[in-house]
């Protein structure tokens, strides 16, 4: 649906060429098209509706007499508004702590462990940092093992305590350890569940309280559409997180989740995951995402 939105808008506006200004009447059908496309990309109804209203306000009255391609004018307005909706400027992570403590949150399977590794690798190779990874999933030994494998791959130490089943203690001990060893970033990977549940939320809220991270990041699978919004809401209510990581953008998704999450929790999307490998990480650029959505 989104694939040819630019083209469709262009066609719809072709008739306008040389006919003066964009009016409420001649823009209505086109905006319906935009709204339908947003809904198809899993943007929630209210966001899509607010969005098209805003675009309409911006578009009406624009002079198309002198514009060679009136459709392109509307595409530009749509693109600018989408960019604005997803956060405007690029925002990275705050690394001013000593050490900087970063807490990863999210459901099981969202890509937390993989992203923890990617972020450690990114900070090590691109930002000249000395990160420590911390395994706090006390329920799944396989998860701890997975983080060790990731750490080995990128040459980053992983702190874990196999005999301890208290994630608060492990994370507090890990920060102490990091200070002793001179690590300047501590990335704490936590246990997820398949769905939001009270036990998980209490546990991560306790870890959050104990370690007071400079950055709490919420990791979400971009393929999960509307569910992504509800999960983001639930985690944000408990953790008031600082940013969102959208994973699996290499998959077959237009990325509508980016728009919905941003407009519902109003937190910036900081990075995206674009594959299973350790270098498949990108800083989130709202304007690039708007282009991807528009096709
Ligand atoms: P966790 O349970 O939240 O720690 O999730 P994992 O890090 O174990 O990731 C779950 C699955 O998703 C694994 O098979 C990962 O390889 C895969 N995965 C993670 N991030 C990405 C991504 O950006 N793209 C793709 N295609 N797969 C990913």
Describe the model:
By secondary structure, this protein is an alpha/beta fold. 51% of the residues lie in helices and 13% in strands. The protein has an eight-stranded mixed sheet with strand order 3-2-4-1-5-6-7-8, with helices on both faces. A hairpin with a 7-residue loop joins strand 7 and strand 8 (281-283). Helix 1 packs antiparallel against helix 2 (24-40), helix 3 crosses helix 4 and helix 9 (225-239) packs parallel to helix 10 (256-265). It starts with a helix and ends with a helix. The mean pLDDT is 87. It binds guanosine-5'-diphosphate. Guanosine-5'-diphosphate (GDP) binds next to helix 5.
DSSP, total strands? 8
Strand order of the largest sheet: 3-2-4-1-5-6-7-8
Strand content: 5-15%
Largest sheet: 8 strands, mixed
The SSE order reads: HHHHEHEHEHEHEHEHEEH
Count helical runs.
11
Q: What is the overall shape?
A: elongated
Low-confidence stretches: none
Q: What is the CA–CA distance across the termini?
A: 9 Å
pLDDT averaged over residues: 87
Structural class: alpha/beta
Ligand species:
guanosine-5'-diphosphate
The proportion of residues forming helix, as a percent range, comes to 40-55%
Rg, nearest Å = 22 Å
Main location: cytoplasm
Subcellular location: Cytoplasm
Family: Belongs to the GTP-binding SRP family. SRP54 subfamily.
Catalytic activity: GTP + H2O = GDP + phosphate + H(+)
């Amino acid at each position: 649906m989104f694939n040819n939105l630019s083209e469709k808008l262009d066609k719809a506006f072709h008739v306008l060429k040389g006919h003066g200004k964009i009016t409420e009447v001649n823009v209505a059908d086109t905006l319906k098209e935009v709204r339908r496309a947003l809904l198809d990309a899993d943007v929630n109804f209210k966001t899509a509706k607010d969005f098209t209203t805003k675009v309409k306000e911006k578009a009406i009255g624009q002079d198309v007499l002198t514009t060679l391609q009136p459709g392109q004018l509307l595409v530009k307005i749509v693109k600018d508004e989408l960019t604005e909706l997803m956060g405007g400027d690029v925002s990275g992570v705050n690394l001013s702590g000593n050490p900087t403590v970063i807490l990863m949150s999210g459901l099981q399977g969202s890509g937390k462990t993989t992203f923890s590794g990617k972020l450690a690798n990114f900070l090590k190779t691109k930002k000249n940092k000395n990160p420590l990874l911390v395994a706090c999933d006390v329920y799944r030994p396989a998860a701890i093992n997975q983080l060790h494998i990731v750490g080995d791959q990128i040459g980053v130490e992983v702190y874990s305590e196999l005999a301890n089943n208290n994630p608060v203690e492990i994370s507090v001990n890990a920060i102490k350890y990091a200070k002793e060893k001179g690590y300047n970033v501590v990335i704490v990977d936590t246990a997820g569940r398949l769905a939001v549940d009270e036990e998980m939320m209490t546990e991560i809220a306790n870890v959050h309280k104990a370690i007071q991270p400079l950055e709490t990041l919420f990791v979400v699978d971009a393929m999960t559409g509307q569910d992504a919004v509800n999960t983001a809401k639930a985690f944000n209510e408990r953790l008031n997180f600082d940013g969102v990581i959208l994973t699996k953008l290499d998959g077959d998704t237009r990325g509508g989740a980016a728009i919905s999450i941003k407009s519902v929790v109003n937190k910036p999307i900081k990075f995206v995951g674009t594959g299973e490998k350790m270098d498949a990480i990108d800083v989130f650029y709202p304007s690039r995402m708007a282009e991807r959505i528009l096709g």
